[in-house]
Write a structure and sequence with these properties.
By secondary structure, the chain is an alpha/beta fold. It has three domains: 8-152 and 240-384, TIM Barrel; 393-591, Class I glutamine amidotransferase (GATase) domain (Rossmann fold, 3-Layer(aba) Sandwich), CATH 3.40.50; 604-661, Sandwich (Immunoglobulin-like). Helices cover 31% and strands 19% of the residues. It is built from 17 helices and 30 strands. A nine-stranded parallel β-sheet has the order 5-4-3-2-1-11-8-7-6. Helix 5 runs parallel beside helix 8 (207-233), helix 10 packs across helix 14 (417-430) and helix 11 packs parallel to helix 12. The longest helix is centred in the first third of the chain and has 27 residues, at 207-233. It is globular, with a radius of gyration of 26 Å. It starts with 7 loop residues before the first strand and ends with a strand. It binds alpha-D-galactopyranose (GLA). Alpha-D-galactopyranose (GLA) binds at residues 147-148, 269, 271, 303, 341, 351, 354. Residues 147-148, 269, 271, 303, 341, 351, 354 line the site of alpha-D-galactopyranose.
Length: 662
């Protein structure tokens, strides 16, 4: 389904920012850099529809024809993430309103409310017009709807749509009042009209209310996506896939499993969130998520930066070699190519300092040379297109669990869903194990030897039953503190923690004892824990480590329970890094989950892609500053075209190798 042949290489192309002389140079430089796919039109609404209902396609016709003549395929975007000023002025009610009631004005992008009828009409209008005109253009190979669905709105139209959504979910007001526990703080609703979006209020919001609003908003975004997709499908056949670019892993307003089911393939954006090896781990994290949300199928990296590493209030540059290594790191985990934001660095506008493939200084630069060398490398890997990655280990990821934990009034400010999930993935990445993400209700969990449940605070009854069956059937489940505590309504499972998993884990938690910032507890195996501790009883579980200090001295901290044919592990504190790695290593070893390549030098990442016909490719990424020798590998290295020498493969410092095995 993903546009081939071979792998895609290129980026966002915004030719409307430039003139003819630059377009000519673009053609030449794209050939040099082996660019074969560009995303066009993402922010072009004001040019394409200068007035309501009046379209100007002549300029885009010319660019698409030119790109096609130059051998470059087109990912045509609908420009709906940035409505033009005429739209805003004609429909002020379609501007987004914050939780504090402030209505935004145009002048940036993403100034729209997804629940606004006028916006939805206008978005479908421009999407249909584009599809009608370009469905049969020979350059077109994919549709890219919108850009990073992310804007949330609390306006009156959102309120009305929220009520419709709640009626469909609960049927009666009584059911809604029960679900949200409105008996507390006199919140009982006597009429649907009394229910508002969770706007700014005094003290805590009701956590059932905020959870449902986030579910509702994700559904709104998905409905807006579907509407555009269906409009496009009326003109454009199934041979041209439709997708959107999902935002960075840490940004969370969508149920990404739901989006994964609706897109023809998953597309993601990924900007490293840290320099050094943390950035490489973050890349693997984003890539494993993208593959998982699409059900294991190939996916596409739609945006990355040539020279952009986000680090708090600044963007750091990428070290030499990083453009290639990060691009290949995504391809190693299933991406069908590597695209960037953007082709040519803007000289004006909001992102004039965002990196690009052709920097302000032009092509005689390290950045362009590295981008072009990456294009060459990607071209050499064409044969891996369509192959997939499989994993023996999964980390559970659930938007509901994140949204629920992200409520006010939690017992500790250090309970961080995203951070805890990243840490679990990182420990597996450090152990060299290829990891999927999975939903707690997934029907096919049995294919994993080990499943980790970090911060799965909320789990539905169905999720709890699925995980129970998984362990009963022989799986190994590692549950971390403050998981399985509330149900899908955000109501506590009473009678002992962690309510959903007590039987599987053979424990009963009586009391959560969050730790003060900076406090530590000592464990009997010499390790320590922070953030959290619990008064826990073993009810069938074996105690692997107990607390040795404080009120809990002598009580279980880490447990292991045989349940059915499988094993349930529980860890009731945030173990120190070394102890966490040791625990994961033990859990993996007992379950027979092996690293992709055993005995690799530390800092070398290995992942395999496999084709249906049995061919396999081993990707090796050296994240260290020294050359590394990888011994247990045989085949042909595709970037050099050379067979792997008998003594092993030397992977250069910061470099990559891709071996066709066999
Ligand atoms: C997002 C957007 C792009 C651009 C980049 C900058 O991914 O989709 O338009 O703003 O961020 O990093």
């Amino acid at each position: 389904m993903i546009p081939g042949p071979g792998l895609a290489f290129g980026g966002d192309y915004n030719p409307e920012q430039w003139d003819e002389a630059v377009w000519k140079e673009d053609d030449e430089l794209m050939r040099q850099a082996r660019v074969n796919l560009v995303t066009v039109g993402v922010f072009s609404w004001a040019l394409l529809e200068p007035e309501e209902g009046r379209y100007d396609f002549a300029w885009l016709d010319a660019h698409l024809d030119r790109l096609h003549a130059n051998g470059v395929r087109v990912d045509l975007a609908t420009p709906t993430a940035s409505p033009p000023p005429w739209f805003t002025l004609a429909h002020p009610e379609a501007m987004p309103v914050g939780a504090d009631g402030t209505r935004l004005t145009h002048g940036s992008r993403d100034t729209y409310c997804l629940a606004s009828a006028a916006y939805r009409r206008a978005a479908v209008g421009i999407a249909s017009a584009l599809a009608e005109r370009y469905a049969d253009h020979p350059a077109l190979v994919m549709w890219h709807l919108h850009n990073e669905y992310a804007t949330v709105c609390y306006c009156e139209q959102s309120a009305a749509a929220f009520r419709v959504w709640l009626r469909a979910r609960y049927g009666t007001l009584g059911a809604l009042n029960d679900a949200w526990g409105t008996a507390f703080w006199s919140q009982r609703y006597g009429a649907w009209e009394q229910v508002m979006p969770p706007r700014a209020t005094q003290w805590h919001h009701n956590p059932g209310h905020t959870l449902d609003f986030r579910r509702f908003w994700s559904d709104q975004a998905l409905a807006a996506y579907r509407e555009q997709r269906d409009a496009i499908r009326r003109h454009s056949g199934p041979q041209v896939p439709v997708t959107t670019n999902l935002m960075l892993p840490g940004y969370q307003v969508l149920d990404l499993w739901a989006f994964g089911r609706e897109v023809d393939f998953v597309g993601i954006d990924h900007y490293m969130s840290a320099p050094g090896m943390d950035g490489d781990a973050d890349t693997a994290f984003g890539a494993d998520r993208a593959r998982s949300f699409g059900g294991g199928k190939p996916w596409l990296l739609i945006e990355q930066g040539t020279n952009t590493v986000y680090a708090g209030d600044r963007t750091l540059p990428k070290d030499p070699g990083r453009i290639l290594r990060s691009s290949i790191a995504h391809i190693a985990r299933g991406s069908e190519g590597a695209l960037f934001f953007q082709w040519r660095q803007s000289r004006a506008g909001a992102e004039l300092w965002h990196s690009a493939m052709v920097p302000h200084t032009g092509p005689d630069t390290r950045i362009f040379r590295e981008a072009a060398a990456t294009g060459e490398a990607v071209a050499r890997l064409a044969e891996v297109a369509g192959s997939t990655v499989s994993a023996e280990v999964a980390v559970l990821w659930d938007a509901d669990a994140w949204w629920a934990l992200d409520s006010q009034g939690m017992p500790s400010g250090d309970l961080d869903y995203h951070g805890t999930v990243m840490r679990a993935h990182r420990a597996l990445w450090d152990a060299g194990v290829t990891t999927d993400f999975a939903h707690p209700e997934a029907a096919d969990l049995a294919r994993y030897r080990v499943v980790l449940a970090p911060s799965l605070y909320l789990v539905s009854d169905q999720g709890a039953a699925t995980l129970r069956r998984y362990v009963e059937g022989g799986g190994t489940l590692l549950v971390q503190y403050f998981s399985g505590v509330v149900d899908a309504r955000h109501q506590v499972r009473t009678g002992g923690y962690p309510g959903a998993f007590r039987e599987v884990l053979g424990i009963r938690g009586e009391e959560f004892r969050p730790l003060a910032a900076g406090d530590e507890v000592e464990l009997s195996d010499g390790s320590s824990g922070t953030v959290w501790s619990e008064a826990l009883r073993a009810e069938g579980a074996q105690v692997v480590a107990s607390y040795t200090t404080g009120t809990l001295a002598g009580e279980p901290a880490v447990t292991r329970h045989s349940f059915g044919a499988g094993t349930g592990w529980y860890v009731s504190t945030r173990l120190d890094d070394r102890a966490y790695a040791a625990l994961i290593a033990r859990v993996l070893a007992e379950a027979g989950a092996a690293p992709e390549v055993p005995g690799l030098p530390s800092g070398v990442e290995a992942v395999r892609r496999r084709a249906e016909d049995g061919r396999g490719w081993l990707f090796l990424l050296n994240h260290t500053a020294a050359d590394q020798l990888v011994v247990p590998v045989a085949g042909v290295e595709l970037l050099t075209g050379e067979p792997v020498p008998a003594g092993g493969l030397r992977v250069a410092a910061g470099g990559v190798a891709v071996v066709r095995e066999g």
